[in-house]
Amino acid sequence: TNMVFFSLADDVPLSSEDVAKGMRELAGVWVGTNGPRGFRAVTHYWIDDDGVQAFLGALERVLARA
To answer: How far apart are CA 58 and CA 26, in angstroms?
Structure first.
């Protein structure tokens, strides 16, 4: 599958909406929310390893804002 599902740990003070908004603002990446603590990313065949690393780096920066 090309969907990756994430769940925020209980000690993360952000909601899935906060993460989705942060990813859009910081990296121009849209992620879908899946309830108050979950979100998902969908990849495409042209997303390479560098793209995945860029996504993870942006996610790390969003989570560090909390």
So the answer is: 7
Look up tokens 């989570």; give the residue.
Answer: 63
Output the six-digit token pair for 57: 């780096």
Residue 57 CA, chain-centre distance (Å), reads 10
Q: How far apart are CA 50 and CA 31, in angstroms?
A: 18
Contact assessment for residue 26 and residue 55, using Cβ atoms and an 8 Å cutoff:
no
Q: Is 10 exposed, middle or buried (0-12, 13-18, 19+ CB in 10 A)?
A: exposed
pLDDT tens digit string along 8-36? 999 999 999 999 999 999 999 999 999 99
Q: Find the Cα–Cα–Cα–Cα dihedral 42, 11, 37, 28, rounded to 10°.
A: -40
Indicate the DSSP class of residue 57: H
